[in-house]
Transporter
Amino acid sequence: MSRTPKWERLWLIPLICVIASSAFADTNDSPCNGMLAIVNRPTIADSPCTAPNKKFILEFGYEYLNLLEGIQGQSYPFAELRYGLPANNEIFVFFPTYIHLSTRPRSGFSEMAVGYKHELFYTSRMIATLDGSIVPSSGSRAFGSKGWGGVINGIFSFNLSEKLSFTSQLGFSSQTQSVLAGGKRFTSVNPDAFFSWFPVDKLEIYAEIYGQSKTAPDEGSGFNAAAGFIFLPFKNMTIDFEGGQRMRGFLGGVENYVAAGAAIQF
């Protein structure tokens, strides 16, 4: 007898969020003030803050990669379009990213994803959020996803002081490899944590550690570390720079990388 894959149950997320928000409603001021609090990039963990109601946020970037076995690569534009809905809700789309390597297969596109985010509850110093995305069978044969998949994340952030905050994210994913990699399905638990320091109002400096319990069907866990900064040159725009380094395992097949990007609200 066939069973419904777990990722297909992601339609339950909106119902869970409505129930949770009713149970944990808080009347204190939200900590989601300004673009530095709202943007997702460049951290791997998402911001716990949703896009403002009836506002779009476009995020994009470029990454230069040193992969294992001496392979170099580039990827861009990492485009994500977010749209804010009433009652602290958001819908978003991740568009396919172009990947170019120094060896075969030389180029192709990653998979796309569509998702939903909701702020469960907040006070003036902390916030808890749930988001989820569905990944259709998409992308190229070398870098895409052979089958459908999905991700669910719980995000929590706490302001330790006026200039220091801590954010953690715990996710569960079900995904498939690309066609050329074999197209096998695997599931993973994905922890992430980072500290942010705000030396001045328009600058955020962060350090992050993230990982997966499985990086492929036949591989174990993998963890990377990253650090960077986000600058606010204008009220509705951020620019960012970061670097990352493999700590253990083969997460993303990356040895190290540097990246830069921006986000615009309109």
Q: What stands out?
A: Residues 141 and 217 are 18 Å apart (CA to CA).
